[in-house]
Design goal:
The structure holds two protein chains of two kinds. Chain A is of the alpha/beta class. Chain A is built from seven helices and seven strands. In chain A, strand 3, helix 3 and strand 4 form a beta-alpha-beta unit. Chain B contains three helices and seven strands. In chain B, strands 1-2-5-4-3 form a five-stranded mixed sheet. In chain B, strands 6-7 form a two-stranded parallel sheet. In chain B, helix 3 links the parallel strand 6 and strand 7. Chain B starts with a helix and ends in a 38-residue tail after the last strand. Classes of the chains: A alpha/beta, B alpha/beta.
């Protein structure tokens, strides 16, 4: 009963049982939002906070968030740190390998805009949204695990609000920021 | 034999390798020897193979840019586990098209260190087995630790920062 009460369903009680009605979209989105698996992928010091959020004190597991060691089994990618120009094409490739529907959380100042310390560096990409689309931005330097957790809850909200066509529909190549990335840093296909 | 350990090393190099020590400096915070550019590899081999000195560990290679004097200074850090002794050896190279003899055949650790100096300062090393860029991305142009380096990816901070 406790579980059913939290499901996105309507439960009509009858003598000896009941009838549950729901909406396929809501049920699927509920299950997707409750099992966001993220990729083990750390870039810089923000990755330490991400690890702390995944470990037992903050415990991502209770949101159904488990880490996977390959992009092909992951739904979510944390961009946890400074993106160097050498790493940028590799991140783009990893993102392309993520199974759709895929989500990206930009974590910390560096992933959002190049960062306070490295913004004027010759070797740093000024924000991950120059090469891949971002769903949730979590500010901080680095963000505390609580902040990251808040970002994950926001992402769950977003997933729950999506329509199936949005999530599983045709991938709109034109609206990905691929062309915003100067071709120099993309690996040769 | 002179008093200090650095003088002793300089004298041994003079006896075994030749008159290649340009400067013996004990005034700076880290004492160093400055040797002729052509003798870098010979000095390295002597320092490693000499039984008494036994500098068996190449800790680091880097360079310093002096645009006013139109030179780069290569800096080699050697360490002797036997004597627990650190030795810094410097050598000046020209700023444009500077080349030094590689020490990879003496210290295998020099492989990546020399690639790093080549990548960031543009000094080439003759005899290096694979002298390619190691830090900067593929297709990068220029050598970023030279003081006159510019890049379109170098975006200065906005002028209107707090406190400016």
């Amino acid at each position: 009963m406790g579980v059913i009460a939290r499901l996105p369903v309507y439960w009509e009680k009858l003598p000896g049982g009941g009838i549950v009605t729901t909406n396929l979209e809501k049920l699927l989105n509920w299950s997707r939002a409750s099992s966001v698996w993220y990729m083990i992928f750390g870039l810089a010091c923000c990755a330490i906070e991400m690890m702390a959020a995944g470990a037992s004190r903050y415990d991502f597991d209770r949101f159904g968030m488990m880490f996977r060691a390959t992009p092909r089994q992951s739904d979510l990618m944390f961009i946890s740190g400074t993106i160097t120009l050498k790493m940028a094409p590799r991140i783009r490739r990893l993102w392309e390998q993520l199974a759709e529907p895929r989500y990206v959380i930009a974590m910390g100042s560096c992933a959002i805009s190049g960062g306070g310390f490295y913004y004027d560096a010759y070797s740093v990409l000024k924000g991950i949204d120059k090469i891949i689309p971002v769903d949730v931005y979590v500010p901080g330097c680095p963000p505390r695990p609580e902040a990251l957790m808040h970002g994950c809850l926001k992402l769950q909200q977003k997933i729950k609000g999506e329509s199936l066509v949005q999530a599983f529909g045709s991938f709109d190549e034109e609206h990905t920021p691929r062309e915003r990335l100067d071709g120099r840093w993309i690996l040769a296909k | 034999m002179a008093g200090s350990p650095l003088d002793h090393i300089a004298d041994k190099i003079k006896d075994e390798v030749g008159d290649v020590v340009v400067e013996v400096n004990e005034g700076d915070r880290v004492p160093f020897l400055r040797v002729e550019l052509g003798a870098v590899a010979r000095v390295a081999r002597f320092l490693r193979d000499d039984g008494e000195l036994a500098f068996d560990f190449l800790m680091y290679i880097t360079a310093v840019d002096f645009p006013d004097e139109d030179k780069l200074t290569l800096v080699y850090h050697y360490f002797s586990y036997k004597n627990q002794q650190l030795l810094m050896v410097k050598a000046d190279v020209p700023r444009q098209g500077g080349a030094a003899r590689s020490v990879t055949h003496i210290y295998a650790a020099a492989d990546w260190l020399e690639r790093e100096v080549y990548d960031l300062f543009g000094v080439t090393f003759d005899g290096h087995p694979n002298l390619e860029r190691i830090m900067t991305p593929e297709g990068f142009e220029g050598h970023p630790l030279l003081k006159d380096f510019t890049s379109e990816d170098y975006v200065p901070f906005p002028d209107k920062m707090p406190g400016k």
